[in-house]
Design brief:
Shape: globular
Structural class: mainly alpha
Helix content: 55-70%
Distance between the termini: 47 Å
Number of strands: 2
Order of helices and strands: HHEEHHHHHHHHH
Largest sheet: 2 strands, antiparallel
Radius of gyration: 20 Å
Strand order of the largest sheet: 1-2
């Protein structure tokens, strides 16, 4: 669902940048009030996990399309909505600048569509209420916790991905792209992202259930006072296991990603070459809006993207994908660490000034 610059008018792109920037500012301010350093290892490894996970497109059977993890629900369940949103912004920015995944002009919109809904709407509307509810109260605490995690993950991913997909439709419609009639675009985008969201919900629940079994206190809104909820592994071991998963997913499993277009590309261009529908039937080489802002953004992106499309420039070598997964995950983890450290530094500075 990474939007290209051609889908947005500059005014719409600027509006979405402003909305995302305000959310970033608010999230940073909130993060300063937390014990930011306590989130350091978890934020680093889970951000890297989402980056690696987004490299794997999974096939949606019978459609000719594919989807990939967004990750907002997963990160907000582990880090809270503010730290989760900042992690998603880091991921999307690095994808944009270093791997040319999503347009630079469209980055604000991509942050809003892929991060805001999963992190804030998903957390406050679904994760927190479900995890704190008395649902399944007669069941054992551990079993009830597993079911609530699965329920919150699946519902959260489905609903927030629907909101993100609809936002894409609205943003392109407001941008005045005549090739994309609103009704037809909605009719294609929403169902395919329903299927994508269901699979993401299952992936998210699998990861979160593992964390629940391994180290339940890492999850937001889990009542760890029950004696049944004992940690299976130490924090260090849990983080190490997740780091190994990042390396396997980003460096190895990413090679098995589906070559089918993702939900947004499939909606616009179809997949007639593989015998499926043309959908909107747009020309991939000539569609959308041309603007000076988009050209300038594209020029910057060409200079910063050292592994465009997660590959070595001008090469089809599988090694490019492996290197992209490992290098990208490391960069994401490093930047996430810096954000947490900065939050802790400014918080300490503020406390010192008051003293």
């Amino acid at each position: 669902m990474h939007m290209a610059d051609a889908l947005l008018a500059p005014a719409v792109a600027a509006t979405m940048y402003a909305a995302s920037a305000v959310t970033v500012g608010t999230s940073v301010k909130t993060l300063k009030k937390d014990e930011a350093t306590a989130k350091l290892p978890t934020m680093a490894v889970t951000s890297a996990l989402v980056f690696a996970g987004q490299m794997i497109n999974y096939t949606i059977p019978g459609t000719g399309s594919s989807g990939h993890l967004c990750g907002g629900m997963m990160l907000s369940a582990l880090l809270g909505p503010q730290a989760g949103f900042l992690s998603m912004v880091v991921i999307l920015t690095i994808q944009c600048l270093f791997f040319a995944d999503g347009g630079l002009l469209a980055l604000g919109a991509n942050c809003w569509n892929m991060a805001f809904y999963g992190c804030f709407v998903g957390y406050y509307l679904l994760w927190k209420p479900i995890m704190r509810s008395k649902l399944l109260g007669k069941m054992g605490a551990k079993a009830a916790g597993r079911i609530k995690i699965i329920l919150a993950s699946v519902l959260g991913c489905v609903i927030t991905l629907q909101l993100g997909a609809f936002s894409v439709v609205l943003e392109t419609s407001i941008s005045g792209i005549t090739e994309l009639p609103l009704g037809a675009f909605v009719g294609i985008m929403q169902p395919i992202h329903l299927a994508i969201g269901l699979i993401e919900g299952l992936i998210t629940s699998a990861v979160l259930v593992f964390v629940y079994e391994a180290r339940p206190e890492l999850l937001m809104d889990v009542d760890t006072s029950d004696s049944a909820l004992q940690s299976k592994y130490s924090l260090k071991t849990t983080i190490l296991i997740l780091a190994v998963v990042v390396a396997i997913v980003g460096g190895g499993l990413s090679l098995a990603a589906s070559s089918n277009p993702d939900g947004l590309e499939w909606s616009m261009f179809g997949n007639a070459e593989a015998g499926y529908s043309e959908n909107m039937g747009l020309n991939e080489e000539d569609y959308g809006i041309s603007s000076a802002a988009a050209e300038a953004a594209g020029s910057i992106q060409e200079k910063t993207a050292f592994l465009p499309d997660y590959a070595f420039a001008g090469s089809d070598s599988a090694a490019g994908t492996t290197v992209s997964g490992l290098v990208g995950s490391a960069i994401v983890a490093g930047v996430a660490l810096l954000i947490c450290m900065a939050g802790g530094f400014f918080r300490k500075k503020k406390v010192t000034a008051k003293a």
